[in-house]
Records
---
Amino acid sequence: MQLDALDKELMCSGHVGCPGCGATIAMRFVLKALGEKTVMVLPACCWSVIAGPFPQSSLKIPVIHTAFETGGATASGVRAALDMKGDTETTVITWAGDGGTFDIGFQALSGAVERNEDFIYACYDNEAYMNTGIQRSSSTPYGAWTTTTTGADWKKLRKKNIVEALVAHRIPYAATANIAFPEDLIRKVKKAKAIKGSKFLHIYASCPTGWRIPSEMSIKIARMAVQTNIFPLYEVENGINYTINYKPREYLVREYFKLQGRFRHLKDTDLDQIQEMVNEDWGLLLRKAGEHA
Amino acid sequence: MKKVLEGSHAVAEAVRLAKVQVISAYPITPQTHIVEILSDYVTTGKMDAKYLRVESEHSCLAALIGAQSSGVRTFTATSSQGLALMHELLHWSSGARLPIVMAEVNRALAPGWNIWNDQTDSLAQRDTGWIQLYCEDGQEVLDTTIQAYRLAEIVNLPAMVVLDAFYLSHTYEPVDVPDQDEVDRFLPPYEPAFILDTKHPYSLSPLVTPNAYMEMRYDIAMAMDDALEQFDRVEDEFAKIFDRRYGAVEAIDCEAADIVFVTSGTVTSTGRLLLEELRPRGEKVGVLKIKLFRPFPVEAVRRALGKAKKVAVVDRNFSFGASGIFAQEVRAAICNVPGHPPIFGYIAGLGGRDITVQLLEEIYFDVKGSDTPRKESIWVGLQEVNRAT
């Protein structure tokens, strides 16, 4: 497979991610697509640690680590300063986890994209607060065990649909992507880079530690999330024009769920119910895209 | 050129003259006049700057952290709840060694909702690593804002220019607005040592283990100590060009005073009137104005209060479970000086209640008639309250 991206690595070995970490794979591809003229804003997330402790860094681009809820705002400031210095060429990207995006950073993100700040906001989604030890977030899917949704209290609420929330802001570009589909991911990053204004990328990034899966299953499970329609690949331009990039239905939801320890407690009836929820969400997306099942 | 300016507009003029490049702001009374006029300056081209109209004070300071880290001069203004919301990022700005300058208009904290003057908002941020400068009048506000950039950029620490709500922010006074070339001679362009730069890709504010964190904190402590010395140098340079200086403290008739008042902000002006009132009557009274609160000018305070028989600190703020905050600082500064005078702490003017010359006079005679403070904090001007049972 030949990727349309830099041969050069902007992420080094020696980072401190867990084996099989989807967030590191996502970072590697995104940087290959963006190239060296990139400034990264990094609010608190797994990557605050993965990047490595002072005085080392596993990233060969300038990075500003910043407070948990400030991804959208800090990037706005970086962009404003670069513009004042006449540098409109450098890409500013916020790289945040699902907690920093769906939950604590949502206000700053909403504010930044409402102002249509010229930057990319990339959320690598591992569906819980993994850095602090697998606590539930509003991105945690229905059915999941986390260390704050244990036993009979497994999460019985839907995952927040973050892309639709961003689409509602009518931003120039919002898209989903997945570490198991690198060509699609790289194409979307490059597309986002070329568009002026606010761009949002929702990147599915599996977490062997938190999902209770073997590290060598990281890519397979990420791929199955798309193949089951649990995490459809699509993009939305200007809040209106939907394009679905992949229409699979190669696996049933239960096959994806059965592979992961975080869903071990679910009964067949639960899985049937989740299948219905996934079907409903997929149907909704098809209607938005003006397509039929 | 002399102009009649509101205190808020004196801040805005200074920000224009400092050639600030990124402004970020969120509205809160009573600082809004500052950021309204700056918005107009940017829109009409009086200033060449980006103006970020953010969705909260928290995002406001986060945006400035991003901008300043990219190598430009920045500004914001806030008050009360807004400053409290910024708290996390106040620590962040000093920890990241960013010389951000902010105007903070002292306003009471809720509940109940109160937009009037009270210093507890800024003083509650005393441990965040920001330089704090309390101003007395419009000219001092303009001069201090320009000086704050110079000082902050020398020591790489953020600075807060503090002014009283309404008494200063909304009061019109004649203010000498300097020419741009004069300010340029005093304030060189901002040249940070480390910025976000794709040619030299640093990682700013990363994870720090116990191996290095403490040394980084010690560096901040040293920088704050250095700010005390640099403040005098900055004032010297400023005085050479503008022929004005204020001092970290100003001792007014303290030399021969038995009782010295300690004041800050506009209460100092009321204190000056008190001296005009009492001195002709043979009362040996002085006023020590504290302008620089962080770093706290311990030696200067000791020198000014050393000869006094009694000290009366007027605090328009309160730290519950302790005392007035200036009183705490003054006590801490002189507690190791043998034979130091007793410190009387008075709480007055909270939530915008007026502090009049008469009130200060009452305090004066209360101190004069007491050998030692009867309480750690004496609340003055309290009214009878009918409490619900």
---
Amino acid sequence: MGVFVFLPLVLPLTAWPIARLAELHLHPRTATRLLTAVAVVMALCSTVCLGLLMVVGTAQLPGNPLPDGWSDPEVREAVPYDEVAGKIAIPALLAVVLACGRTLWRHSRTHRRAHRALAGLPRTEVVVLPDEAPYAYALPGGRRGRVMVTTALLSCLEPAERRALFAHERAHLARRHHRFLIAVQLAARANPFLRPLRTAVSYTAERWADEDAAQAVGSRRAVATAIGKAALVSRGTPVPTLAGLAAPGPVPRRVAALLGPAPTGRSWPPVFTSVGLAAWGAAAGAAASAMSSANSAVSMFFILHAATPL
Amino acid sequence: MTDHPQRPRRRGQGELEALVLSALREAEGPATAGWVQERLGGGLAYTTVITILTRLLDKGAVSRERAGRSFAWTPAADQAGLAARKMRKVLDGESDREAVLASFVTGLGPDDERLLRDLLGQTRSEGDD
């Protein structure tokens, strides 16, 4: 397997161009699906390879419970720099497992608590909470999920903008955006090089809901002003950014996109454009990841099979 | 703090119900009868508080849920407010809630506010045309 076992760890870098270009050039629906698929494949492959390296690493540990054959020279020779790589792989894989477990646990805890908080109320799809803090969330779960919005946020919106807000949150629920979001979060935990994809997907999922909402209420401007007003009224917590690098944040970009023309529904970009090349590059990277990790897993299986009498 | 009656005196049924209900409304969530009794300043017997709460329950003014061996009581009219307070607690406890719940809007960066006002101002003038 040689150097192939390391490739899936760094191949996520091939997805960086598309993570940057997708939001400008692809329909948000296509962008969300493509980036999530790439992130999931790459994260799985990277974790498999980390696992293979860990096997080599644990075989070197004195007193390990593995069969003696596992620490044979043939096994160790299968991985370049086996001593260093194996030793690093053990804590790395442990960190990945812990981080993913923690993410899932926090996710389900918040989810459970939020549902419990609404438990006393009638089972309506939209829940209006009397609160002076302006916020709105889509809460998935149950038969169709619920939309919760506070009176403070509703009071600053015109009727058309309220419809836009509800349409946006309903789109999140109907399109099951929470699944994309949790998938890319776990992927980013599995391999830090996938973090730009997580950032990109959390933006494109919002854009997807914005576009759905614009179609549902029949006015791109109503959605744009709803987002703008909601952001201005809830601006209590500014995002910490370096002042010199302050590129426009996600909210102004969403508003600007809605004030522009609707994105075309074309699903895959033409090859000889920057975004086409970036998309194909990421797809090739994901395929290479899959092949490298499959190659490594199969070779490791045969080496271990030959080395151990099992 | 509300004024607590210092010594017991005779009160009408309606007044007692109002007192108990207002005490319940001051609670940060469901409260037990013992809590209500303490809150009212000891002027009422525990059984009296229970009697009044049960009467309020019959009227639909409060609801109760089992909490261990006793009941936790909530003013019925305040279910939405209670849910809002609970939800705030959930959201405040979650340091990066964006990671869990997709918010309608995220926070604004330093230049975003100006940018956003420009964009919205532009819309408004277009809308006026």
